[in-house]
Amino acid sequence: xxxxxxxxxxxxxxxxxxxxxxxxxxxxxxxxxxxxxxxxxxxxxxxxxxxxxxxxxxxxxxxxxxxxxxxxxxxxxxxxxxxxxxxxxxxxxxxxxxxxxxxxxxxxxxxxxxxxxxxxxxxxxxxxxxxxxxxxxxxxxxxxxxxxxxxxxxxxxxxxxxxxxxxxxxxxxxxxxxxxxxxxxxxxxxxxxxxxxxxxxxxxxxxxxxxxxxxxxxxxxxxxxxxxxxxxxxxxxxxxxxxxxxxxxxxxxxxxxxxxxxxxxxxxxxxxxxxxxxxxxxxxxxxxxxxxxxxxxxxxxxxxxxxxxxxxxxxxxxxx
Length: 320
What we know:
Elements: H1 3-18, E1 28-32, H2 39-50, E2 55-58, H3 67-72, E3 73-78, H4 88-94, E4 100-103, H5 116-119, E5 125-128, H6 131-140, E6 148-150, E7 168-171, H7 190-200, E8 204-207, H8 211-214, E9 228-231, H9 236-240, E10 247-250, E11 268-270, H10 272-283, H11 293-299, H12 307-319
Parallel strand pairs: 1-2, 1-3, 3-4, 4-5, 5-6, 7-8, 7-9, 9-10, 10-11
């Protein structure tokens, strides 16, 4: 472990324990760990502003000068696990905390080994996009039944399935997580090849590597613009699904059993070698993969664009 990080952690936790700030009467909401300009956070915060509910936001490491604000927080909201909550390490040691925790991760455990069910044991509540995902999480841990709420993802409120996309192809692979045994590694030259195919067919091309690989904070992509999505096992495929447009999955060597919904049932699964031909066929209109409506129903229960409203209603219940 990095020595400086360890010393900073000890200093922070000591200051947290010694701080004597008395909680006020304001039901303060805290958003923890916004590394990627999280669109779900943004939509929820806009609604909180409308309803005059105060909130604050922190990154991974926050200055100790904010400890008084942390201690007034009645609800922490996370999208990438509890590790960004200021007193997370203290909680793991003492198993005591004053604030409630709510998780709104968009991934929903598409890969069974992601471990969201195990992580949610420490939470008071969590949101999911569908009844299917709630059922699957409860299978892994029956004690979660009263913690999981089917609200839908706020980001789905921005999607317009009836709109006309631009002539744009998005390549957005996941990162090669060392904890995930990816059998087939990404070809670093693939984005260049895909760009050339798109330009030949009159399409623009965007390559967006995962933040854990690029290390760059990015603005959220407007998926309404995208005509064709290329990915691998990234959950961006779920974000894109309500638009009912072609999705191509690049085979990384996983088996169908590695997914709650097999990739081949969610779009077209192909090798990197065949990808160039498949993309060319789609862009010139020779062939288009059939959309599976059963898959959409599994990842998206609500299609009324009121997902943000449902999440905010849950937040209000938790801080009352």
